[in-house]
Amino acid sequence: MARIAPAHPIPDEELEGLTAAERLDRQTIGVISHRPELAEALLRWAGSLQEDDKGTLPRRLTELVRLRIAFWNQCRSCMSVRYDPDAVSEDLVCSLERPEEADDLSPAERVALRFADLMATDHLAIDDALYNELREHFTEGEIVELGMHCGQYVGMGRLAATWQLHDHLHERFQSPQEAPYTPWGPGALR
After folding, report:
1. Is the pLDDT reported for residue 54 higher than 70?
2. Pseudo-torsion of CA 109, 150, 140, 40, nearest 10°?
């Protein structure tokens, strides 16, 4: 059970037939709606990062970054959701276990994932050399946008992990386990 109930109960029948991503969004918005003005502002801000016509980064890249940060955050909700399964296959998600060795990631994706890893684990280790490597693949604006995505995923992912919005999750993420959860592994998620 979630640690914070939605501001307005969401009947089970409203969640039936929705994808895992849609259920998670409804439940998260339900919790944030305890402060409606903040929920509205967050949805505008997060939406501006996610909308294809406003962002400059490929959806595939931002989804890979989101899933990798979800692993570091141990946010089961975030790991269980695939916002763009057509762009990010389960085989590609499995590449996130060792992105530096993955054949199916571009050099730009690898450096973005290295940046994301450090944002989630040791942000002060990000140095001039890493920013220079990012500049080999991204414009200044794209680097800012990547950083904003990472900031959203690190901060909101950690907060969401504490809320334990697990009721809607794939069975892989339902019960507690001793080993870390991963977005890669057996059983395709959609």
Report:
1. no
2. 130
Provide the token pair at 76: 């089961």
The 8-class DSSP code of residue 124 comes to G
Q: What's the whole-number mean pLDDT along residues 31-55?
A: 84
pLDDT at 78 over 80: yes
Average pLDDT on 98-106 reads 94
Amino acid at 169: L
Burial 103-122 (b: 16+ CB within 10 A, else e): eebeebbbbbbbbbbbbbee
Contacts of 94 (CB under 8 A, 6+ apart): 184, 185
Res 189: pLDDT = 54
Closest CA to 45 of 34, 56, 54: 54
**DSSP string spanning 52-90?**
TTT--S-HHHHHHHHHHHHHHHT-HHHHH--S-TTTS-H
Cα–Cα distance, 68 to 46 (Å, whole number): 18
Tally Cβ neighbours within 10 Å of residue 22: 14
Q: Which domains does the chain have, with CATH numbers?
A: 12-173 (1.20.1290.10)
